[in-house]
Amino acid sequence: MPIYEYECIACEKQYQSLIMRKEDEKGLNCPRCGSRKKRRLISRVAYHVSEQDRLDGFKASDAKDDAFFRDSRNIGLAAKKRARQLGVDLGQGFEEKLDRLRSDPGSVVKDSE
Ligand SMILES: [Zn+2]
Using only C-alpha atoms, what is the Rg of the chain? Predict the structure, then answer.
């Protein structure tokens, strides 16, 4: 779903809104001053990127900086990409383990001991 970022022209407050239809945007008010005058910003943030996009953009051969590895959403991308290339279905168990690894890395380590 498209989430857009706006800046209020009256007070410069920046805010985001989910826009389903063009009319939604017209009626959008600034949460601080209520003004409808706004401009849409180009979204600078990456967190709306779907996992599919991340997989498509991911290359195992690229050098990754620390920020890449600190982002837990990137955990397991290499394995998934490889499996997809090989046509391997990793199955539900893998997805679940990956979810846990991303949210609570300690739990998975404990399980495999
Ligand atoms: Zn405002």
Answer: 20
